[in-house]
Structures are given as C-alpha cells and as structure tokens.
Amino acid sequence: MAKPKINWADLLDDYAGGMSVSELSRKYKISRSAIYKHFEEKAVVKPLDPNLTEISRIAIDDRLSRMHVLYSSLQDIQNAVEECSANLRRSQFQMMALFRHMESLREALSDIHDQHIKKTIADLRSDLRGHSKPTVENDDSDRET
Description:
- The protein is mostly helical.
- It has a domain at 1-48: Arc Repressor Mutant, subunit A, CATH 1.10.10.
- Helices cover 76% and strands 0% of the residues.
- The longest helix is centred in the middle third of the chain and has 76 residues, at 54-129.
C-alpha cells in the first residue's frame, strides 16, 4: 500500500487554525503519531491564543521552561543508563573470558594432578617390589649408560 501524499502546508494551516491532531488525522487519513513526528522534525509549535491574559502566557512559558529542564535531565539520565549498560556488557564479557580461562586452568591442573598420582603410585609399586627404576624420562638423562 503506497503512502498517501500529504500536503503538510495545508495541514499546518489547519493546525494553526485550531484543528486538533485527532481532527487532522481523520481529515488527512494519517496517524496521529505521523503528525506528531512531523511536528517534532519541523519544530512545530501551536501558537498561543491571542486572547490569553499576560498571566496565562507567563504561566505557560514557565511550564514550558520547566519541561525543557526536565527533558534535559531525563536525557542525561538516559545517557547515564546507556553508559552503565555498555559498561555492564563489557564487564560481563570480561567475566565470561575469565571464567573460560579459569576452567581451562582447572582442566590443566586436574591433568597435572592425575599424572602426579599415576607417577606416585607407579613409584610406590616399584619401591614395594624392590626395584629402583625411575618412572620419569628426565631421570634417565642424568645417568650415564
């Protein structure tokens, strides 16, 4: 389904004339989110009613400035959360690498232990039989034949 061609200039004129976003959505047959997205991209703001009192205008300006401060604070919080999330992912990756390394070290140590036990048992059996035969290859290199 092809996107409908929207005459954004007419839509903005209708908006400035007082139509609500819901009315614009029905008239132009597009979603409200598409309208809001366009307004955000083009920095569209609805003009204030010319019949507003000065006090009302000041109150609106004050609320708007507080909203900007809050939005800025929320953006800072979002950035901090994203940074923490990235740091946690890096830490998780490092921890997984450490655990893999520890597992390989555990396997190597287990192999060394098993070899030591076999050698010790072989040496003890040899001693019990009265043979003084070395079980390590390096022991033979010290002796002359």
